[in-house]
């Protein structure tokens, strides 16, 4: 019970810190919220009235208290760009980011973990060097450049995949947006042509994000496996005559899977928050593009709301991975 109370207190402090950071960001940026609402041609009296209405003339601690109370009620303000509530805008665009990041982490984990195991088993050999080189390129190459090159090659040149956007324009209004996840909505509608179009648009940005996460996952998998393969129980298993494949996949990888779970979870959270450039390059109507458009239009309610959601998602996934880590490994309890 004491551990649960400590975990809850830590979570509350983290959320409060996130709220404080987003609040301060909204106050230190050069954009005047009152001027954004009233317009460039507003008089001094009109600006003063807007500041009074928004509470901007009150002390910072009072403004922060009102901000926390509004967020607790699910009120992130209204977007100047769309005219809608920020919460409704985020609910509309977040499924696109969720779909893209999910495909990316599935791609990254499904390929990155076996590559990391292979590199550890072949330590110092050509296979190990190739996997490490692949990871280095994934870390070093700018993701927007990779996206542009991938579009130029696989879409414009070869025509293997769909272009920017989530689906061909002809299917935009034929598929009812029930969940916001395009693949799921196409399946629910039973429209196989729309499903094929959505998949062709998703595969390239999803694979690009997957390659970005694959570089980190394969590297960490290799590190964990090298530690496990040098452990005493592996030496004992080899002395008993167990096959190398069984030692690697049934014993070493099983023990490495517990810390690897945290790596995959944090990579997933990173894709959910870090796909801004990918969404911009591929015109993907997700949270990253929403925040980018809001920044360009000085729409601070949308920027702060999107930032807050990203931070909350990261905290939630981090907490979930920590709980799973403790459940899978009793030594950490």
Tell me what you see in this structure.
The chain has 333 residues and is an all-alpha fold. The chain has 2 domains: 71 residues, no CATH class; 247 residues, MetI-like (MetI-like fold). It has 14 helices and no strands. The model has no long low-confidence stretch (mean pLDDT 82).
Highlighted features:
single chain, 333 residues, mainly alpha, MetI-like fold, 2 domains, 14 helices, 76% helix
Short note summarizing the structure:
It comes from Roseateles agri. With 333 residues, the chain is an all-alpha fold.
What is this structure's SSE topology?
Blueprint: H1 2-28, H2 33-38, H3 44-54, H4 60-72, H5 86-121, H6 126-140, H7 143-157, H8 182-189, H9 192-229, H10 232-239, H11 244-274, H12 276-281, H13 287-296, H14 300-328
Helix pairs in contact: 1-14, 5-6, 5-9, 5-11, 5-14, 6-9, 7-9, 8-9, 9-11, 11-14, 13-14
Family: Belongs to the binding-protein-dependent transport system permease family.
Main location: membrane
Subcellular location: Cell membrane
- Determine the structural class based on helices, strands and strand pairing: mainly alpha
Total count of domains: 2
Q: Order of SSEs, N→C?
A: HHHHHHHHHHHHHH
* CA distance, first residue to last residue: 13 Å
Q: Could you estimate the helical fraction of the residues in percent?
A: over 70%
Name the poorly predicted regions.
none
Q: Beta-strand percentage?
A: under 5%
* CATH homologous superfamily heading of the largest domain: MetI-like
| General shape | globular
- CATH topology group of the largest domain: MetI-like fold
The chain-level mean pLDDT equals: 82
Largest sheet: none
Number of strands: 0
According to CATH, what is the class of the largest domain?
Answer: Mainly Alpha
CATH architecture of the largest domain: Orthogonal Bundle
Q: Helix segment count?
A: 14
């Amino acid at each position: 019970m004491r551990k649960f109370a400590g975990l809850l207190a830590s979570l509350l402090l983290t959320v409060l810190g996130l709220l404080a950071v987003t609040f301060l960001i909204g106050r230190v940026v050069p954009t005047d919220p009152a001027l954004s609402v009233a317009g460039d041609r507003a008089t001094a009296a009109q600006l003063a009235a807007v500041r009074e209405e928004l509470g901007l003339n009150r002390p910072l601690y009072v403004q922060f208290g009102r901000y926390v109370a509004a967020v607790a009620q699910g009120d992130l303000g209204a977007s100047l760009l769309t005219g809608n509530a920020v919460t409704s805008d985020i609910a509309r665009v977040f499924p696109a980011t969720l779909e893209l990041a999910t495909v990316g982490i599935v791609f990254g984990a499904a390929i990155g973990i076996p590559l990391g195991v292979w590199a550890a088993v072949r330590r110092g050999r050509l296979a190990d060097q190739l996997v490490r080189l692949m990871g280095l390129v994934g870390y070093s190459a700018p993701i927007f450049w990779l996206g542009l090159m991938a579009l130029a090659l696989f879409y414009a040149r070869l025509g293997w995949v769909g272009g920017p956007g989530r689906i061909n324009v002809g299917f935009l209004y034929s598929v009812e947006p029930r969940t916001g996840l395009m693949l799921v909505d196409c399946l629910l509608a039973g429209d196989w042509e729309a499903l094929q179009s959505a998949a062709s648009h998703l595969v390239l940005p999803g694979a690009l994000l997957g390659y970005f996460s694959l570089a980190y996952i394969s590297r960490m998998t290799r590190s964990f496996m090298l530690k496990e393969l040098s452990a005493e129980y592996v030496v004992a298993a080899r002395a008993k005559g167990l096959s190398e494949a069984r030692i690697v996949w049934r014993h070493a990888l099983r023990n490495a899977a517990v810390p690897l779970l945290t790596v995959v979870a944090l990579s997933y959270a990173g894709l959910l928050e870090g796909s801004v450039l990918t969404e911009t390059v591929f015109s993907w109507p997700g949270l990253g593009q929403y925040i980018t458009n809001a920044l360009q239009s000085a729409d601070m309610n949308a920027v702060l709301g999107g930032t807050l959601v990203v931070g909350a998602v990261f905290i939630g996934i981090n907490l979930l991975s920590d709980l799973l880590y403790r459940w899978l490994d009793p030594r950490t309890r």
